[in-house]
Amino acid sequence: MDYTLPVFLAHAIALECEAAERYQELADMMEAHRNDKVSALFRDMVLYSRMHHDSIVERAGSTVLPKIGPWDYVWRTPPEAGGDEAFDYRINPYDALLYARENEVRAMNYYSDVGMNSREPEVRRLAAEFAHEECEHVAKLDAWLARTHRP
Ligand code: ZN
After folding, report:
1. Long-range contacts at 27-33 (CB < 8 A, ≥ 24 apart)
2. Count of C-beta atoms within a 10 Å radius of residue 24
3. How far is the CA of 104 from the centre of ligand 1 (A)?
């Protein structure tokens, strides 16, 4: 894939926006489970995604970004939730963490793919930086998975 900077920024903004929304949903679900710790983790992740989103928007500045349609790398709903239906609110903390992890890995792979393959040095640099951030998110979720009861 050979992204120009505006196309890359548009995708990154879409990805972070989606992540923030999904984490918000996950946080609400965990609250319904009265799992305040995992809920708080997901609320932190909402903030990280929003901060990342905002810094990308800032980085884009006055650059005109292309509108992009729905796209494969954006977070996927769990298969059991069925298409565009809302999440299954009975999802347990372990599966919620696992689901978040899968999506973080997808984001990480996406960014590192762009980071390695783009012809534009600035796109490569930014994408590598974002891939690193996603890698940290995956590590954070792994740490939580390790101390969460597996149903
Ligand atoms: Zn992330």
Report:
1. 29/87, 29/89, 29/91, 29/96, 30/93, 30/96, 32/89, 33/92, 33/93
2. 16
3. 5
Give this prediction's pTM: 0.87
* Calpha distance 16→52 (Å, rounded): 7
Each residue's pLDDT tens digit, 46-59: 999 999 999 999 99
**What is the distance in A from the centroid of ligand 1 to the CA of 117?**
21
Distance CA 136, CA 133 (A): 5
| Euclidean distance between CA atoms 52 and 80, whole angstroms | 29
Ligand 1 centre distance from Cα of residue 43 (Å): 13
